[in-house]
Structures are given as structure tokens and as C-alpha cells.
Amino acid sequence: MDHDQIETSGQVVIVGAGVAGLFCALKLAPRPVTLISATPLGEEAFGATMQADIAAAVAPGDSPESHAADMIAAGGGLVDEDAARALARDAAAAIEDLLRLGLAFDRDHKGALATSRAAAHSARRILSVRGDFTGQAIVAALVQAVRATPSIRLIEGHVADALLTGNGAVRGLQLRRTDDPAAAAVLLAAPAVVLATGGIGHLFAATTNPDHANGIGLAIAARAGAVIADPEFVQFHPTAMMTGHDPAPVVSESLRGLGAILINRRGQRFMLPRHPLVDLAPRDTVARGIMAEIMAGRGAFLDARDVLDEDVAERYPVLHRACVAAGLDPTRQPIPVAPAAHFHMGGIAVDARGRTSIEGLWAAGEVAATATDGANHIAGNALLAALVFAGRIAEDLSGRTFAGAPGLHDVAFAAPAGADATPSERTLREIMTSQVGVIREEERLAEAIVAIARMERDGGSPNVRNMASAALLIATAAWSRRESRGAHCRADCPAENPSFAQRTMTTLAAAREIADDLAARPTARQSRPLSA
Ligand SMILES: Cc1cc2nc3c(=O)[nH]c(=O)nc-3n(C[C@H](O)[C@H](O)[C@H](O)COP(=O)(O)OP(=O)(O)OC[C@H]3O[C@@H](n4cnc5c(N)ncnc54)[C@H](O)[C@@H]3O)c2cc1C
Q1: Which among 12, 239, 388, 472 could disulfide-bond with 337, CB atoms 3.0 to 4.6 Å apart, if both were Cys?
Q2: Is 107 among the residues known to form the active site?
Q3: 277: which residues sit within 8 A by CB, 6+ positions away?
């Protein structure tokens, strides 16, 4: 098929203009790079990064060793301890980089960087900019710097829907216009590609993630044969607001810290018998408690009536806006909540330099699995790892030269004529939330896998096919891990099992094989999504 082809003359191409992609492009300057941005740069409401704070052991008395120990404790025995220590050690330099870019982190009265505490951190280690504007401020500073860097060539308004390889090495990318997925593909020759496409939350109907966090970056690497690590480990935020917003706004944990309580429709405090810390139990425990109430038909609500007063708009602007849009007054009514897909610990397997299993392919940010999260993740580490690994990739690339890539062939997604993408995407997301969500179980995972594999094969559009590939990796790994560990909870195998005390390393071919076996089993029934 004839296609437009863009030459990069042996340049590095970075896919994704979130914190990881932007930072990597800047770190590579003055080396010429091409940066693919799905939207006009900076016009994405700052993507998943918007509400994020960043962790770094910079306060007096804190240390990288202590930060690493907290990562290791949270990771369910699957964290690579050397990787965690190296990430914690590199944090201070990443913060220095941000300060050099002009980031105005909050400071204490002595002028030192102000730090606050977050769950699972044993020290005050969270840095913020004007309270909860940190992520937004970081992306704004990076965008400004990228715009002012002549060596960065921007291709805006395009998404990558396939990674092109030859002889086991990267050759380029297949791009499509974001606003016209039906338009002809554009091929981009590239001997070195950095994927920085973010997470997978949007694969689930209930998520806190924006719609671009749809797993397509993960899928295109997997379709090209990359090894994928730990895909089953998805962190669910326990209290996302269920008022019909997509993504669902997060109801801050701090409200529970101030005394807001979780109740069901009957007014019962269902966390009382579940954990001594009741509503302040660890995230996973609260998410499972809420999910159990929802599945039993009793619903779950955060009752913050005794905590919020007239200044709610000022103190909790995101919550307030979402409540107003839903016609809800949180000072008078309990807020309906449910767990929602929030962060992917898994991703494209990378080593300490961000290299993947495919020659010429690197990955940074949430799309990468860096071995520093294991089975669970601690607050503020996502932005930190995104910056640190993006920087290490730039270092790994420095001094390397690449020849121009040879002619390219497109990757066809033979779609059935007239297929309508929207219902399939919705179905996929509903299956993921109801069958591959907070509480998993073998038979329902098997049903989901068979349905998702069908979409991967026959789905209506490249987007749906790619989303189904990412979903298939998550579902098959969740089915294979017959235990509960970290954020992965199996109702049929509720305990940790020492024989599963290792990371998952898988491929799309292995996932498809599991799906084929399950489809051939007499017990594999048609998928039945419960509800969105
Ligand atoms: C509500 C919320 C709160 C959070 N709070 C915190 C926190 O306090 N601290 C913390 O550390 N982390 C937090 N996180 C997680 C953190 O924000 C993300 O992990 C981080 O922003 C990921 O950065 P990234 O650069 O990998 O991806 P993103 O910032 O998501 O950027 C990815 C970019 O890639 C683009 N893209 C995607 N697919 C393609 C494609 N196929 N082709 C081209 N472009 C593509 C997207 O459009 C996007 O611009 C939070 C996340 C959410 C949703």
C-alpha cells in the first residue's frame, strides 16, 4: 500500500509528550530528536500528570535508603532492591533538574524545600508546587522548555498505532492523525524509538486516568514482540467519585484522615470489621472493602458531611467541581465512591537504562515496568521514575549514532467493513472493570480473556485492537497468578503463595496462547460484564 513516509535521518523518535517524553527530549538536546504529541503540545489538560506530586528524599533526616526501603516494603516481595535504591538515589538530581527549569516548589519558612507525608512513606518526602498544582507546573515548565529548544522537531496531532521492526530491531513507526483515525497511515522511519505513552487506566470503565492512558503504547511494543513485565499489577484508587464522570475524580484520602467515613446504602460502616484502621486501612484493603459492598448491591459512599463546610470549593476544588456537575452537595449528602484503575505497576520490561528487549526500543514513564514497583506502588514515585528513567535513556543514547532506516511496510489491521469502534471499546472497558478489576476470580478471568481475545482478533479499529492487546496481557497474567499479592487480589486464591514470588515476564504470543487454550476448554463461557 502507498503511504506518506517521513524521514528522520537516523534521529531518535520519542512517542508521547507527557512528563517522560518531554524530559527525555530535553535531556537529549542539542541532539536532534523528533517528538510525537497526540495533541497540540500542552493542550491535553496536562494528561495523567496533572494532579501528581513527586517523592524525593531531600528533607533533613530522610535518606535514599529509607525511600528505597519503603518501595521494597510496598512491592510484595517483587521489587528489585538495587533498582529501588538507584531510583531513590537519583531523585535529588531529578529535583535539581526541575529547579533549573524554574519549578517553584513550595518552601518552608527557612527557605528549604517543603515536604509532606503520604501513605506508605516513612518520612516527609512529597514535594509540591502550590499544593496540588505540582504535575501541572512540571508539565508547563517542560512544554515551555521544549518549545524553546530548536533541536526538538515536533509532530503534533498524531498517535502511533504500530511499531515497525525488521530483523528483530526497530525500523520505525506507523502514525495516524488523532482527529481522524480512518485517515491513511503515515510511516515514520526511525532506528531508535523511545516509548513514553503513559498508562492503561482507560482500559477500565472506572478509572481516574484520562482517555489517552489507553495502553496503546504498551500494545504496539507487545505486538512487535517486546517482553512485558508484571501486567497484572494495577493499582485501584479506592475512592473515585462515581457520578458519571470519565475519568472519575479522585476523592482525596485526606478527607478520611480528617474524619470522613465510608458507609453503605444502609448507613453501615462496612470497614469496621475489615481492618483495625477502619477507613484509613491501606489502599488495597479499602478498595476491596468498597468493591465487596458494591458487588453485594449495598453501594459505597464517603460521608464527609461532618468534615466539609462552606469553604469546600476553596479547599477541594476538583471534588467541588465534580459534585456541582453531578448536582450533589457533599456538605449535605454522602458522595458515591468506587475503586477505579489508577496506576499500572506493569509495562514494557526495561533494564536500568530504560532498554527494552527489542533493539532500538527504549521505554520511560508509566508505560515502562522498571522493577521499582513490584506488586504495588507508593505515592509520588510515578513522576520520579518517569523523570529518572527518561534521563537515563538520554544518557544511554548519547554518543550512539544510527543509520537512516530502510523503506518501511505498513502494519495492516484488517478491520471488518463498517465496524463501529465505539461499542467495542465500551464493552472492553466494562469487561475489564467487572472481570479484571479489584477482585478477580479464575472463571470470570477466563471468560474475560476469551472475549478480549476475540476483540483483539476482530475488533473494529486499530485503537480497539491495540487496547484489546494490552487488556489481554493484563487479564492473562491475572489469570496465571493464582495467588493474591500486592494490588492483585484473587477471591479464589486469597493468600500469597511463595511459589509465585517472582515477577511476571510475558509476551503477547504467550497471552494469545493462554486465550486459545481457554477458548478450546468446554468451561469457557461467553463473557458477561456485570456493570460499568
Ligand atoms: C488522578 C491522578 C493522580 C496522580 N497522582 C500522582 C502523584 O501524586 N504522584 C505521582 O508520582 N504520580 C501520580 N499519578 C501518576 C502519574 O501522573 C503518571 O504515572 C505520570 O504522569 C505518567 O507520565 P508519562 O509521561 O508516563 O505519561 P503521561 O503524562 O500520561 O503522558 C503520555 C503522553 O503520551 C501520549 N500518547 C499515549 N499514547 C500515544 C500514542 N500511541 N501515540 C502518541 N502519543 C501517545 C498521551 O497523549 C500523553 O501526552 C497520578 C495519576 C492520576 C491519573
Answers
A1: 239
A2: no
A3: none
